[in-house]
UniProtKB/TrEMBL annotation, chain A:
Single GO MF annotation: acyl-CoA dehydrogenase activity
Record PANTHER family: ACYL-COA DEHYDROGENASE (PTHR43292), ACYL-COA DEHYDROGENASE FADE34 (PTHR43292:SF4)
InterPro entries xrefs: Acyl-CoA_DH_CS, Acyl-CoA_Oxase/DH_mid-dom, Acyl-CoA_Oxase/DH_mid-dom_sf, AcylCo_DH-like_C, AcylCoA_DH/ox_N, AcylCoA_DH/ox_N_sf, AcylCoA_DH/oxidase_NM_dom_sf, Mycobact_Acyl-CoA_DH
Annotated ranges, domain Acyl-CoA dehydrogenase/oxidase N-terminal: 14-127
All residue ranges annotated as the Acyl-CoA oxidase/dehydrogenase middle domain in the record: 131-226
Matches recorded under PROSITE patterns: ACYL_COA_DH_1
Domain of life: Bacteria
Keyword annotations: FAD, Flavoprotein, Oxidoreductase
Organism: Bradyrhizobium zhengyangense
The keyword Isomerase is assigned to this record: no
Gene Ontology cellular component terms for the protein in this record: plasma membrane
Pfam families (alphabetical): Acyl-CoA_dh_M, Acyl-CoA_dh_N
Cofactor list: FAD
Protein name: Acyl-CoA dehydrogenase family protein
TrEMBL record, chain B:
Source organism (scientific name): Bradyrhizobium zhengyangense
Keywords attached to this entry: FAD, Flavoprotein, Oxidoreductase
Name of a matching Pfam family: Acyl-CoA_dh_1
Recorded GO MF terms: acyl-CoA dehydrogenase activity; flavin adenine dinucleotide binding
InterPro entries xref list: AcylCo_DH-like_C, AcylCo_DH/oxidase_C, AcylCoA_DH/ox_N_sf, AcylCoA_DH/oxidase_NM_dom_sf
Names of required cofactors: FAD
Domain called Acyl-CoA dehydrogenase/oxidase C-terminal: residue spans: 203-319
Family: Belongs to the acyl-CoA dehydrogenase family.
Spans traversing the lipid bilayer: none
This protein's name: Acyl-CoA dehydrogenase
UniProt-listed PANTHER family: ACYL-COA DEHYDROGENASE, ACYL-COA DEHYDROGENASE FADE28
Length: 386, 353
């Protein structure tokens, strides 16, 4: 076989189910207390710092990390359960989500000890927010075309250039970014980029909000002008960021957030059609649920393989490809099915408001965090086509 | 499941490799491959994998049997292996011993129904019964006044009208008209829905296997075929098509193996198992259409010829969609289940495992 794709049927262990109950109870309390409205989609321009601190206090941030950095040394499958329950409840996770999923693990792997001791416990307590500085005005999917320069100076580097489409930069305390420390070589065009930890909210950094088609201002342009980064903020090998970027992708690409972004419209459709749907609604809902279930089982499978120490890079890319295309189409399929919902359905207004937002959100889902085209290139490479 | 994990699958794969090579079978217009393949499978005890030792079978686990059927799908095996396994399983639910030889199950569609009268005679008409013409016995699920019964029937006592599915395999119409079974027993642990779900998971695993092979031969072909002075695998349009085929194959594999795992480890056919099995049939059927379409597109005209092996996988995968309830049927049923549980019970159902 040229392509030995594996999706082992992972079952979540018993302790995950106990945890799931705790998370659901916590979310129910927070909803009752008015911290957030579960019928409102995960509004990315809603920042709820006290929610982050409460989640941190429960031990649900950095939960797979070593205890000495504030973590809980729990499994990826347990983290998976927390993540999916938060998504489905439309909990306001934006302040901690990037740090927990991506930035923390990068620091764990590449930051010097004193930085880890300083920052990781604060992520675990839900106190700080991270952004990711990858794209630039002329470098999006082609990550290695990045031009923002890091020039060596006494005790550190001076940064000049612009990052763009940077989610949460306007509230972030830190950014993990890649900057150019050397030109690419003839042999390796990916050479010359270095990963840095950047402390935000300082002179030399200007964050300009960018309006989105949803009406939100969730991503930004971030301009660096002679901004100083100390030597101990270099993460990993100078000029060698390209070696570090790929192994984390499996974590980033296969999580429940890659197919649950518009899930809320399906729940609301089921509510709107009621307990005795007509054949058309029943078939439509049945298909969507079957597709959702399949993606979740694929995603859980990848989480299980990660927990077992495997590196299912191609499988993870497949999950993101299929998952994001699905969550992008979901609002349109729900709209089709909602066309004949009774005028008297009690949640009709909620469903319409959600559909309006989900339909506007949909286009970004196959772009953010690796476009469909890039993912299919990775899958094709895994199949031995390039 | 690219590698064999156990002795049952290893045995089966060796037999398939020796006696069910798709190219050899495709070249053999007389069907002389069938008898030796069936004989080898029978000698290895594979058709009665799901029948306990004391009922005449080889007593393999459900999990091993499912893995074996996934392998059978990878070879697009066209003898009644899956059907005999399923028949043996059904008979074993009522502690009825399995005879030797080919079997199939009645009904094979959720719409058909066999009834049992006061004298224990069976009546009813079943359409789309896979391999009924080849079967020596039928395992029948029947409805009577006292509930569900399982029966073993001599196939020669039924009237069987020959038919072919889109994969050129027998899919026949069987009519029982007051047929006295060889054995009939009341069954408590199985009903028609369970039988359809079980059959649906069997077909899902076969479809997933066929898609794995379609991906494999499509990738290989794209690395050989030259057009516009380069291998077609170097064209981005072709690469992206194959990536999508890999996605469909992966989805089918994940859905089918997850459902098989759910049934193999469940105490009963509860809502969670229902979701797993129905979802597998729905998603695998969708993958058969989308994935098979891409495999053909990559192959161009050569894949449309009867000489090429692609159709052995692509058409069978399409045909398997129809057995034990089509994806439309299961989608309606699953949709009704979800609606009756209510909106706030959807996520707990999906997240149950």
């Amino acid at each position: 076989m040229t392509a030995a794709l594996r999706f082992d049927p992972i079952r979540l262990p018993e302790k995950c189910e106990q945890l799931r109950k705790e998370v659901r109870a916590f979310l129910a309390e927070e909803i009752a207390a008015g911290t957030f409205d579960p019928h409102k989609p995960n509004r990315e321009d809603t920042d709820v710092p006290e929610f982050s601190r409460k989640v941190g206090a429960r031990g649900w941030l950095g939960m797979t990390w070593p205890k000495k950095y504030g973590g809980q040394e729990r499994s990826f499958l347990e983290r998976y359960v927390v993540t999916e329950e938060m998504r489905v409840a439309n909990a306001p996770t934006r302040r901690f989500f990037v740090a927990d999923r991506q930035s923390g693990p990068v620091l764990l792997k590449y930051a010097p000890e004193h930085i880890k001791m300083d920052i990781l416990p604060r992520i675990c307590r839900g106190e700080i927010c991270f952004a990711i500085g990858m794209s630039e005005p002329n470098s999006g999917s082609d990550l290695f075309a990045a031009k923002t320069r890091a020039t060596k100076t006494d005790g550190g580097y001076l940064i000049n250039g612009t990052k763009i489409w940077t989610s949460s930069a306007h509230i972030a305390d830190y950014m993990i970014a890649i900057f150019r420390t050397s030109p690419p070589t003839k042999e390796n065009r990916r050479h010359g980029l270095t990963q840095f930890l950047v402390k935000m909210k300082q002179p030399g950094i200007k964050v300009n909000p960018i309006g989105q088609i949803t009406g939100q201002y969730e991503f930004n342009e971030v301009v660096f002008t002679d901004f100083f980064v100390p030597d101990d903020h270099v993460l990993g090998e100078v000029d060698g960021a390209w070696k570090q970027a790929t192994s984390e992708l499996a974590y980033e690409r296969s999580g429940p957030e890659r197919f649950l972004e518009t899930y809320y419209v399906l729940t609301e459709l089921v509510r709107a059609v009621g307990p005795n749907p007509d054949t058309r609604s029943a078939e439509g809902i049945g298909r969507l649920v079957a597709q959702l279930h399949t993606m979740r089982r694929m995603s859980v499978s990848v989480a299980g393989m990660l927990q077992a120490g495997k590196e299912p890079v191609v499988e993870a890319s497949i999950v993101k490809d299929i998952g994001t295309v699905w969550e992008q189409q979901l609002p349109h399929r729900v709209r089709d099915l909602a066309a004949f919902v009774e005028e008297t359905a009690t949640n009709r207004e909620t469903l319409e408001r959600q559909l309006d937002f989900a339909i506007k959100t949909a286009p970004k889902l196959t772009i953010q965090g690796g476009t469909t085209e890039v993912l299919r290139g990775i899958i094709a490479r895994g199949l031995g086509l390039r | 499941m690219a590698e064999s994990d156990n002795i049952v699958v290893e045995t089966a794969e060796k037999i398939f490799a020796d006696l069910a090579d798709p190219q050899t079978i495709n070249n053999d217009k007389k069907g002389s491959w069938q008898a030796p393949l069936w004989q080898a499978l029978s000698e290895a005890g594979l058709p009665l994998s799901w029948v306990p030792d004391d009922l005449g079978g080889s007593g393999a686990s459900l999990a091993d049997g499912f893995a074996l059927l996934n392998a059978a799908g990878r070879f697009a095996v066209a003898v009644p292996l899956a059907e005999t396994m399923l028949a043996g399983w059904l008979l074993a639910q009522a502690k009825i011993a399995s005879p030797e030889g080919e079997m199939t199950v009645l009904p094979a569609s959720p719409k058909d129904r066999i009834t049992v009268d006061a004298d224990g005679a069976l009546s009813g008409r079943c359409r789309g019964v896979p391999f009924a013409k080849a079967a020596k016995h039928f395992a029948v699920l029947a409805h009577g006044k006292d509930g569900v019964a399982v029966a073993l029937v001599d196939a020669s006592k039924a009237r069987t009208e020959s038919g072919l599915n889109v994969g050129y395999d027998h899919s026949d119409t069987v009519t029982l008209d007051k047929v006295q079974p060889i054995t009939i027993k009341a069954a408590s642990g199985v009903d028609q829905t369970n039988l359809m779900l079980m059959g649906g998971v069997v077909r899902s695993l076969q479809i997933a296997g066929a898609l794995e092979s379609m991906l494999d031969i499509s990738v290989r072909y794209s690395n050989e075929r030259v057009a516009f002075e380069k291998k077609i695998s170097k064209f981005q349009a072709v690469q992206h098509n194959l990536a999508r085929l890999a996605g469909e194959s992966a989805a089918a594999l994940a859905a089918a193996t997850s459902a098989a795992d759910a049934i193999a480890n469940a105490k009963s056919f509860d809502d969670e198992v229902y979701l797993e099995a129905a979802a597998a049939k729905i998603r695998c059927a969708e993958a058969a259409e989308k994935g098979g379409g891409i495999a053909h597109q990559v192959h161009g005209a050569i894949g449309f010829t009867i000489e090429h092996i692609l159709h052995r996988f692509s058409l069978r995968a399409l045909a398997w969609r129809d057995d034990f309830g089509s994806e439309s049927y299961w989608a309606v049923e699953l949709g009704k289940l979800v609606a009756s549980r209510g909106a706030d019970e959807l996520w707990p159902l999906v997240a149950s495992r």
